[in-house]
Amino acid sequence: DRSIKIAPSILAADFANFGAECATVEEQGADWIHVDVMDGHFVPNITFGPATCAAIRPHIKGVMDVHLMIAPADPYLAEFAKAGADVLTVHAEAGPHLHRSVQMIRDLGCKAGVALNPATPANAVEYVLDRIDLICVMTVNPGFGGQSFIDSQIEKVRQLRAMIGDRPIHIEIDGGMTPTTAPLMAAAGADVLVAGSAVFKGGSVTNPAPYGENIRAI
Ligand code: DX5
Ligand code: ZN
Predict the structure, then answer these.
(1) What's the CA gap between 97 and 18, in Å, rounded?
(2) Which of 22, 115, 198, 218 has the fewest Cβ atoms within 10 angstroms?
(3) Ligand 1 mutation target, pool 6, 10, 11, most atoms within 8 A of CB
(4) Which residues are documented as binding site for substrate?
(5) CB within 8 A of 107, min separation 6: which ones?
(6) Which CA distances in Å does 55 have to 3, 91, 113?
(7) What residues bind substrate, as annotated (predicted)?
(8) Is the sign of the CA dihedral 160, 165, 167, 172 positive or negative?
C-alpha cells in the first residue's frame, strides 16, 4: 500500500558511507530517511550526534526523520534542528517535561515527534496531541536493529489512532518491520514504517537493486 511511507533506518546501513547510502536508498524508493541517535545512557548503544546528521543532510532529498534516543534531549534540540532535521522525535520517557520539549521542537521549525517505548501506555501523549506531528510506536526495545517485533504494540496503535481522531498526526512504527509484520501495523492504523535490516539486507551502494526489492516487499 503506497499511502504507507517507508523510512529506512540508516542504523542498518554502512556507517562509513552514509551519504551514498541515503541517496541510494532514496533512489530505490525510500520515502523518508530515519536517523537513529543513541547516547549510551537512555539506550545501551551509541551511534552518532548532530555533526553526523548535518553531514548526511545534503545527501537526502526528502524528509530527514531524526529519532533521538538520548536523555536529556532538550539541551541538544537546537543543534539537531540546525543539522537539518525535518522531523525531530524525543522519547516520552527521556525527561519530565515532554510538553516543553515538543514546544521547543516546533519553535525550532521542525515537526515534533514523540516516541513511546513498548511499556509506555498510549495515554502518555494524550495531553500533547495538539502540539505534535508524529507518534513513534517502538515495536522493539530501542537500542539495536535486527530485533523481533513485540506484538502487544498492535493494540497500542489502535488506541492511538482512535485517540488522534482527525488530527494530522503520523503514527510511525519502529522495530522489527518485515513483510509479515508491516501489514499488521498498517491495518492497525500506522502510516510510516521504519525498517532497518529488512531494507538494507542483501544490498549495497554498488548493488542497490535489493534495497528497492526489499522496500516494495514491506
Ligand atoms: C531501534 C531503532 C530502529 C532500528 C530498527 O532502536 O530505533 O530504528 O534501526 O531496526 P530494525 O528494522 O532492524 O528492527
Ligand atoms: Zn529509530
Answers:
(1) 33
(2) 218
(3) 11
(4) 9, 67, 143-146, 174-176, 196-197
(5) none
(6) 30, 24, 22
(7) 9, 67, 143-146, 174-176, 196-197
(8) positive
pLDDT recorded at residue 187:
97
- Our CA angle for 16, 75, 139, nearest 5°, is 60
Q: What is the mean pLDDT of residues 204-216?
A: 98
Whether the CB of 142 sits within 6 Å of ligand 1: yes
> What distance in angstroms lies between residue 163's CA and the mean position of ligand 2's atoms?
23
Nearest CA to ligand 1 atom 9: 145
Mean pLDDT of 97-101: 98
Q: Does ligand 1 have an atom closer than 6 angstroms to the CB of 68? A: no
Domain range annotation of the chain? 5-217
> How high is the mean pLDDT of the chain?
98
* 204: pLDDT strictly greater than 90: yes
* CB 115 near ligand 1, within 6 Å: no
Under 8 Å between Cβ of 146 and 108 = no
Q: Domain 5-217: give its CATH architecture.
A: Alpha-Beta Barrel (3.20)
At residue 48 the predicted structure's pLDDT band, cuts being 50, 70 and 90, is very high
Question: Quick one: which of 112, 140, 153, 134 has its CA closest to 12?
Answer: 140
- Could you give the ipTM of this predicted complex? 0.98
**Catalytic annotation present for 36:** yes
pLDDT of residue 1: 53
* Cβ atoms 120, 127 nearer than 8 A: no
Q: Is 67 in the pocket of ligand 1 (CB under 6 A)?
A: yes
Give the pLDDT of residue 2: 60
